[in-house]
Design goal:
heterodimer, A: mainly beta, 7-stranded mixed β-sheet, 11 strands, globular, B: 6-stranded mixed β-sheet, 5-stranded antiparallel β-sheet, 0% helix, 54% strand
Amino acid sequence: NAGVMQNPRHLVRRRGQEARLRCSPMKGHSHVYWYRQLPEEGLKFMVYLQKENIIDESGMPKERFSAEFPKEGPSILRIQQVVRGDSAAYFCASSPGETYGYTFGSGTRLTVV
Amino acid sequence: GENVEQHPSTLSVQEGDSAVIKCTYSDSASNYFPWYKQELGKGPQLIIDIRSNVGEKKDQRIAVTLNKTAKHFSLHITETQPEDSAVYFCAATSGGSYIPTFGRGTSLIVHP
């Protein structure tokens, strides 16, 4: 079992470019969650998705950020026109259903220069 | 919504000592409290959890206690080892939701 796979591990983007972060959940998991972690801060919830549906996006910034979890393929977190303040570690977690206890991936560290 | 406070932000101990990390939460309807360990460059890993119908849970050198009346819960690590050095996060999950709110983390340093 490969666990939750995130790629890339590190991503550098210039201001104004687009960033695409990918997350493949654990085998058998159909629920995906995205979190953002700023330096020396906790994990902030962004969005919760099931296959082809956004269930809760209450933590997602209203502009420039979007997420999807298509029927086939990984979940994608997309950040358009990145700014320096978007620099952070982005973690994806998955679960088999509406249950407690996530499994986290190793994260994508986004640096905006 | 839920608000979780975690203390201390940094904890330094000698190998073999005990370490205690404390968290408080605001929503009395919260009913699930996981603890995660995050090593440098890695994602958080669930190490122990407790539900609101239990006051204490133990797993080898790790234990968690919950005081629902006071709305606080604690992580206890006994006989600390250098490999316990990491950032530890507490979290609380409100009733009706499966999305936890995390504390800001405690950086535990165990000196050999």
